[in-house]
Amino acid sequence: MTLTEKYIREIQKHLPAKVKKEVAEEILDGIRQGMANGEKEADVIEGFGDPRKVALGYAPQIDYLIGPQLRFLYKRILGIVLVAVGIGLTVAQVISLLVTPESLFTFFLKLLGSYYNAGIMIFGTVTLIFFLINRQMEEETFSKEKSWLVEDLKKTPEPSEEINLAENLLGVLFSFAGVILLVFYLKPVDTFVINLALVLAYRWLLLALLFLVLGVALTLLIRRRNSNLLRMLKLLSGMALNGAIIFLITREDFLNPQVIEGFRGSLAVVGTLLENIPLVTVVIILVVTGLEIHDTVKAFSASKERWKP
Amino acid sequence: MDRIVAALGQELKRGSLVLGVLSRLEEEKYGYALIKELGDYGLQVDQSTLYPLLKRLEKQGLLESLWNLVESRPRKYYRITDLGREVYCRLQSEYLKMHESMTRLMEV
């Protein structure tokens, strides 16, 4: 990748999608004009200056809550969490209706209320996390701004080596939360439905896989450079963890048999619904894994393509 | 103090730059040539300032841009529009009036 290509790419990172192509063409034209007049490539780029400042000139309203770099991931994670919690809440409300019968009107009001509360909470939490990541990324850019030099471009990772900062930060956050949960808080958060003894029997396997996921995400965050090996390691560790979770939750004894039996006697529908919770969870995990595989395959093929402004 | 002067000087320049750009685009010009020409008249301007400004003026309809596809590599050039010409004339008289007032103010 040439210096010009790297430079334009850096500018594009701070621009909204709709103007990326147009601005790239214009900057490329400007650099070419400078070079046609006998200036060196590095000197023309130096004349343009800090990529972020150039981008700000094109899109002065760039002070986003969540910048263009993170928006795709933000929407995806928000969507997955909302759908997962939506399904969970619906199942929970239906169970509650069957256990303590009430009018359908009350049921729907309660359901809408729970959607509203959960929606606001999820939207607020996910947005806050992404806002903080976005701010961190902006601060990093600003601290670079003071001493921006063309030389910096040479050290910039190639597109195929770039890491997704937000995705890895979230990976660290969730795997760390998983470790804490397994080590310290398994008992208090245990619900009457899950067979705790089974989870405890596989605790070390789950912990090992969580540490693997955590390690890969931390390595990527520290190195700030991706490679096909790390990409593959990330996918495989994620798949192994997801596979272990699927293995556990699809086992017949994952749900507390006494509770299921208890429901079978009085409320068969509740028992059936409870039995189907693992299935819903498996579907969600499979969708997430599918997206991860898709992203990795895309990144692999992108690493072979040459970037064009 | 230097930083304050630089920042205030930048602010002063920002407004006048539009006038400078409009004044030079009666004939179509490439961005690079425009920078050089403004520099020849003592108005130093960075590429990072000029290119986004040209884009903004184009969006406002004061300039139009065309890609010259005749040469081996396409080149984009700009020229003033009728609306741009009108705006320029009015801005020019505003500027001259302000210049006169400021000169009188600073002489006192």
Q: Could you give a quick summary of the protein structure above?
A:
With 309 residues, chain A is mostly helical. In chain A, 79% of the residues lie in helices and 0% in strands.
Question: Which short descriptors sum up this protein?
Answer:
A: about 300 residues; mainly alpha; 3 domains; 14 helices; B: about 110 residues; alpha+beta; Arc Repressor Mutant, subunit A
Give an account of the 3D structure.
The complex is a heterodimer of chains A (309) and B (108). Chain A has 309 residues and is an all-alpha fold. Chain A has 3 domains: 63 residues; 85 residues; 150 residues, no CATH class. Chain A is 79% helix and 0% strand. Chain A is built from 14 helices and no strands. Chain A is elongated and about 85 Å long. The relative contact order of chain A is 0.10. With 108 residues, chain B is of the alpha+beta class. Chain B has one domain: Winged helix-like DNA-binding domain superfamily/Winged helix DNA-binding domain (Arc Repressor Mutant, subunit A), CATH 1.10.10. Chain B has 4 helices and 3 strands. In chain B, strands 1-3-2 form a 3-stranded antiparallel sheet. The radius of gyration of chain B is 16 Å and the shape is globular. In chain B, 19% of the residues are buried. The model of chain B has no long low-confidence stretch (mean pLDDT 87). Chains A and B meet through helix 2, helix 3 and helix 4 of A and helix 2 and helix 3 of B.
Catalogue the unreliable spans of chain A.
none
Computed over alpha carbons, the radius of gyration of chain B is 16 Å
Number of helices of chain A: 14
DSSP strand tally of chain B: 3
Distance between the termini of chain B: 25 Å
Average pLDDT over all residues of chain A: 80
Q: State the helical fraction of chain A.
A: over 70%
Strand order of the largest sheet of chain B: 1-3-2
Q: Give the amount of beta strand of chain B, in percent.
A: 5-15%
Separation of termini of chain A? 11 Å
* CATH architectural name of chain B: Orthogonal Bundle
CATH topology of chain B: Arc Repressor Mutant, subunit A
Largest interface, counted by CB within 8 Å of the partner chain's CB: A-B, 20 and 16 residues
Proportion of residues in β-strands of chain A: under 5%
Number of strands of chain A: 0
Largest sheet of chain B: 3 strands, antiparallel
Write the element-wise H/E pattern of chain A from the N-terminal end onward: HHHHHHHHHHHHHH
